[in-house]
Design a protein that fits this description.
The chain is of the alpha+beta class. It contains ten helices and ten strands. The protein has helices at about 10-20, 20-30, 50-60, 60-65, 70-75, 75-90, 140-160, 180-185, 195-205, 210-220; strands at about 35-40, 45-50, 105-110, 115-125, 130-135, 165-170, 175-180, 225-235, 240-250, 255-265. The strands form two sheets. It has a five-stranded antiparallel β-sheet. A five-stranded antiparallel β-sheet has the order 7-6-10-9-8.
């Protein structure tokens, strides 16, 4: 008879610890199709299943991941708020049982095995006493947002230097979309002044009233670029000279759907 081999109890326990239930094992090929970080954890945060993107982004293989708890992955500065949201979802009901609340959604950074800090958009849900986690790497999105914010700041500075503001008006509406510089040019408070065809027209010098609206009407008929100069009365009674230049937005049917352009304070040039 072949001799029986003995097995180290500690090694056997470790193997059992990292062995996934058959149902979770069957999910692995499906989860690996996603580019998002996906994981399943117990309600105490112990990970039991991860997908390939989890390993690729955070650097932990399955054995390593199953030996740590989810909170340990979160950046210390984001951990408290993230855990508060998760705990609110899995808090106990009046009878002491785990309640199931709506999924939670938040942004929190995670620390990879390499020490790299990765910003994630997280979604957590609870089902059958298990936490289901999905994290989307938003570093590229944040970089785009930061670049856009910087670009907008530069554009605002350029508009301020040139005393030029941007505007857009959608046909059939009263309201203008204004850049911040136009509020300064017209000497009005952004919080209290609503730029509409009527309110802007009221700011015009009485002999120029109606000329802007007439220019808009002609532009919609001719569908050509246009420019017009007019005067406005500031809050202190001062007169400012404004040059307005615009273009038309035309849809596939050949209809003008919006007008847009710039207004510049040219008082110093007069």
């Amino acid at each position: 008879m072949p001799a029986k081999t003995s097995q180290n109890p500690a090694h056997a326990a470790a193997k059992m610890q990292h062995k996934k239930p058959d149902q979770e094992s069957a999910l692995t090929p499906f989860l690996d199709l996603s580019g998002d970080v996906l994981a399943v954890a117990d309600s105490d945060g112990s990970l039991s299943l991860i997908n390939q993107s989890f390993s690729e982004l955070l650097g932990y293989d399955e054995r390593e991941a199953c030996s740590i708890k989810l909170p340990e992955l979160l950046h210390p500065e984001d951990r408290t708020s993230a855990l508060s949201a998760i705990r609110a979802m899995i808090g106990a009901g009046e009878d002491g049982s785990i309640k199931t609340a709506a999924p939670v959604h938040f942004e929190a950074r995670a620390i990879a095995k390499s020490g790299d800090v990765i910003a994630f958009d997280w979604r957590f849900s609870l089902s059958g006493g298990k936490l289901y986690c999905a994290g989307r790497d938003i570093r590229a999105l944040q970089a785009q947002q930061n670049a856009l914010t910087a670009h907008e700041a530069q554009l605002r500075e350029a508009e301020s230097i040139g005393k030029i503001g941007r505007w857009r008006w959608r046909v059939g509406q009263q309201h203008f979309d204004w850049s911040e510089e136009l509020y300064r040019i017209f000497d009005v408070d952004k919080e209290s002044f609503d730029p509409t065809l009527e309110s802007v027209n009221r700011k015009l010098h009485r002999t120029d009233a109606g000329r802007m609206i007439q220019a808009f009407q002609r532009a919609m008929i001719s569908q050509t670029p246009y420019d017009i100069d007019f005067r406005i009365i500031k809050s202190g009674g001062e007169i400012a000279y404004i040059r307005c230049e615009g273009r038309c937005t035309v849809n596939a049917a050949g209809e003008v759907t919006a007008l847009y352009g710039i207004m510049q304070d040219i008082t110093e040039l007069m």
